[in-house]
Write a structure and sequence with these properties.
This protein is α+β, with helices and mostly antiparallel strands. The protein contains five helices and eight strands; from the N terminus they run H-E-E-E-H-E-E-H-H-H-E-E-E. Bound molecules: flavin mononucleotide.
Amino acid sequence: MQRDTNPISLFKAWYQEELDQSSLSIPSAVCLSTQGLDGYPNARFVSFKEIIDGSFVITGPLNSRKGLEIQQHHQVALTFWWTTTERQVRIQGVAQKLSPEPADSYFEKRSRASQVVSNISQQGSEINDIALLQSTVKTQLKINEHIKRPESWGEFAIQPIRMEFMQFKPSRFHERWLFERHKEQWLINQLQP
Ligand SMILES: Cc1cc2nc3c(=O)[nH]c(=O)nc-3n(C[C@H](O)[C@H](O)[C@H](O)COP(=O)(O)O)c2cc1C
């Protein structure tokens, strides 16, 4: 493992190496864990977008289950498993809602189908009439007009306080490095596999 003293640069290097070699259609998938409102941990995959000012950006409906959970408990975790390079990165940090401008630009970059579905579907709400929902989506797909970002769609920036990098080894003596942020410094320790 390269001995980077900054976990953000190490993350960027590892992610790029995985992207360069991966044949997965969604190599940006990352497991986002939140504290459930009922106390049970909750996890689901989302797409990692980018790092801004040292924070990891994810997007989605703010009024979804994950959105409500994050707004209640800001402490979250992100877990990457990169199959090609056989590396795991675990991140714990504090999620903050970003201002609307970047959200507009992320929304613009989404496929039209994703924009239409985000505009019509109330993510996580129960379906009463699936035929009606599907026909509304179909109709909107046919109308060639600009789709504005729904107010409830936005992004969270997760500022890491702890990042652990694990490199799988054929010997099974996997290499683990833990970075913990103390004020402006990162403390680094190697962990037993
Ligand atoms: C590979 C993959 C990527 C996903 N990306 C996102 C995403 O970026 N944002 C999002 O809101 N949901 C995404 N989803 C859907 C979530 O897993 C989840 O179903 C949805 O966010 C609702 O979760 P919640 O009810 O906990 O809010 C993705 C699912 C998969 C499998």
